[in-house]
Amino acid sequence: MEKLKELLIIALIWAVIIWFARVMKRKSNEQSKKFQENIPEMELIDEEERSYICENIVSFTTGRNVFLWFIILLNLWVTIGYGWKAINMAIFGTADAFSSNLCYTSIFGGIAYSANLLRKAWFRERERNEMGVLKKRIVEVKEYEHPGANNWNGIIKGRKPGISVNISIPNGAYIMQEDNNMAMLIENEDGNFYLIPRIEAERESSKQEQ
Question: Which pTM was predicted?
Fold first, then answer.
């Protein structure tokens, strides 16, 4: 009976994890739809612009992919180890030992599952950016926010005031300021928005650094 209760608790934990992931995805989609109502009209990009845009907004690099695979495989290996112990405890051991091993199995299995979800989401985003429909609009940044570290947000003028978009590259805010606060607003197929410097401004900045 005690073992059955533990199994039910673990099942409940996993149900909460899956429910939370779905709720966050739904909220993200709803926020994106609300944002779309407030932005200027967008236009399609050409291939030269796609190459430049993907260079600046694609965050899922080979290094991150390798790191996530390492996290997934490491946690799967630990999960299998604790899972095997839990099976042995279920057959030969005590209820407390079984519960402890089952709990660790669930924790490390959950970490592996979450890391895999993140890897798949990043991979799908990269594919859509590199192969899907991308739209652009040259906008004026009215104000800048500095949340911390290398993160910057740009407040752009839309149908309603105060639309805040994350600036995708660390030095992007400085390049935009030097470009009379002009920037390129990008929208991908998922309805995600990015703010990056104009191609001309980025090239000019690269020449100055050289």
Answer: 0.59
